[in-house]
Amino acid sequence: MATPREVQLRIKSVKNISQVTNALQAVSASKVRKAMQAMINTRPYATKAWQVLTHIAGQPGRDTLHPLLISRPEINNVLVVLITGDRGLAGAYNSNIVRFTLQIFNNFDVPVRFVTVGRKGRDLMFRRGQEIIAEFSNLPADPSFVDVSAIGRIAVDDFLGGQSDEVFLVYTDFVNMARQDPVMKQLLPLEFETGEGRVADFVKAERGAAAAYIYEPGQAEILEEIVPRFTALQVYQAVLESLASEHAARMVAMKNASDSASALADALQLEYNKVRQQTITNEMLDIAGGAEALTSV
What we know:
Layout: H1 4-57, E1 78-83, H2 93-105, E2 112-117, H3 119-127, E3 131-136, H4 145-160, E4 166-176, E5 179-188, H5 219-295
Parallel strand pairs: 1-2, 1-4, 2-3
Antiparallel strand pairs: 4-5
């Protein structure tokens, strides 16, 4: 049985850990609110960009409007943009998205290359022998569109250069504070059909009668500007979704750790009381035994 001093040291250690987890929980709660606000702020622009792009791409001769809209008859190579976190202590957040990605692409019919966003995803994919052509880590705590636009540019250049015939985006979708779901969406060529896993689900654009737009200077010029930008916007919004998911997962994990530490401290305190009580009982028995020995002399 442990001595009272050993139990006290364990109680002190557990309480110190609890203070750390409580602090991390508070920090994550603050960050997840900022990340959620950033997601809300991007939705109006994303919705309007989507409406304009969908309207133009729905015109006759879509396949000749822009190369990023053209589906290729044969798929020989695939590029995957994988978004994870830079740090751990977020429960199963990083391992879930990596496992989800490997389940889909580990035994894919064609060669698959990766662009990783986040150190955890980079390290896990590298250890599993996957080909990584680019990696982005240490993004700002509140990333702007400029901070992540290079990721979309790599995807666009790789697709236009013929190195990949399809580009997929894998990230964690923020549903609520207790639920974050791994999601895969096709990034290139842009798809406009609704349904599971389609780009149309990426923004919640309202449906209704198609509006009549007049484009200046013209459809081709607008598409040349808006299609690559909208591709980068999808990556940006996925990064914001992943950040919110990471902070929410870390907040929940730290709350669970704090609760476990509190329960463990209570259990150790009970053990300490038992050990202390047993020590006092033994001391009293020794005193009584000594007194009895003196009276019998």
